[in-house]
Every structure is written in structure tokens, then in C-alpha cells.
Amino acid sequence: xxxxEEYPEIGDLVVCTVQNVKNFGAFCSLDEFEGKExxxxxxxxxxxxxxxxxDHVREGQKIVCKVLSVDPSKGYVDLSLKVINDHQRREKxxxxxDEAKAQKxxxxxxxxxxxxxxxxxxxxxxxxxxxYGTLYRAFEECAINKxxxxxxxxxxxxxxxxxxxxxxxxxxxFVDIAGHLELVCYLPDGINHIKxxxxxxxKKPGKDGTEVTIQYIGAPKYRxxxxxxxxxxxxxxxxxxxxxxISYVSKHGGEGKFSREAKK
Length: 264
What we know:
Elements (H helix, E strand, L loop, with lengths): L12 E10 L2 E6 L6 E5 L20 E10 L4 E5 L5 H28 L3 H16 L2 H10 L3 H5 L5 H12 L5 E11 L4 H12 L9 E8 L2 E8 L2 H20 L3 E7 L4
Parallel strand pairs: 3-5
Antiparallel strand pairs: 1-2, 1-4, 2-3, 4-5, 6-8, 6-9, 7-8
């Protein structure tokens, strides 16, 4: 979204660009806030004693900090770098990059519907952010399901253009989970029944992109892999697919069991 004009709140994680490093701390611009700057005191740069501050921060560096205090009357935003862990840093940078991409996509949408960026926010983007959490998430949902906006109740000439831009520029996100199937059949033609059971479990990609594939490990073990748009869907699908295979082979003189493979 456009850079915000207000100040961040205490506890917020913010993306910063280091502008000026002094012996006592570092001055940074807040990338998500229009014209706002922050300061990291040397005691908040890293844990322990900091001998050379430039060993930790340097001009032009992108960093993620936590807001410690804000004084709008004086234009002060005190920041801490040392309290940010690697997971928080990666997650915040990822979200920031996603929103930067969403802003570029919105520029395309604005051109198609003949609106300014500000007008787009006024007419529909603020509502989308309210509904989906972020503008990028709205684009992402449209890439997954072209009728997402329509199903949520959005109407207007902008909808088709928004969806078109999303589907052209965003590859739907998917997750993969896996498990192990053990299938045995004691009939003379048992191998044929096992093949049929595995065929029951497999699923080619549908409209939502969900897919189930089977890999041979070594009789009687098989690996079942599910690709879906989220973990909840994937978990439901892998259980149902496994149950289909086990049910089929059980009805044809065999037995089977399923075990979930741990997430990596």
C-alpha cells in the first residue's frame, strides 16, 4: 500500500533503511511510513557489548526493527534491532516484499480502470485490506479462485480487471504434505487390486489445484503426496485419499494402513 503518513505503534515491526551510523547509534528511515525516521541506540543494536557499531549496521542496509517508543510531537521513533530474531526478520521482509509487489500490481489495475492509486484505495482497496488482511492476500486469493471477490460480495467494473491482473502475475501458493501407505492383498491377483486401490487414491489437479500422487517405495510401501492451497485442505485430502485406497484393498482380500510423514 502507499506509505502511511501516521507513525507506527509501539511494538510494531518495521522495515528500515540505515541512513547514518554514529558511534552512539544509527539513524534510519522507515520504509513503510512517509517521511518518518527512527533511531537505534547503540545499546539496542545487538546483545552484549558493541565495540564497533559498523560490525552490525551500515549505511544503506535494510533491517527489521521493533518500535520501542514514539513521540509524534518531537518526531522521535526509538527502535531496537537486537530483539528481532531470524524468523521475525524473514517473515517481516517477506510481507514487505509481498506488499511492494501488490502495489505494482495495483498500478496496473488502476491503469485498466482509469483511476489513480488513491482513488482505488478509496473505492475498493481499503475494503479489500479489511477483508483479506493485506492487499497482496487479496490478489493471491483471486489467483487461487477467480470467483473469490464475487463470492465475498464485491461488485464493480474493477473486479474483472483486478482478477485478470492477479491471475496473470501471481502463481497460486501451494503446500505439500506426504504420508506412507502400506497395502497388501492375499489374493492370487492381489497386485492388480493394489494398483486399483492406488488409482482410487490418486487425483489429478482440479480447479483448485489440489493433486494427489503416489510413489512406489518398495512393496508393500507407497508414498502418498498431496499438493493443496493450504495445510487444512491438504490434511483432509490425504486422509480421504488414504481411506479410499485402504477401503478398496480391504474389500478385495487385503489390508492396509496409513502413517503421516512429519512436516519438514
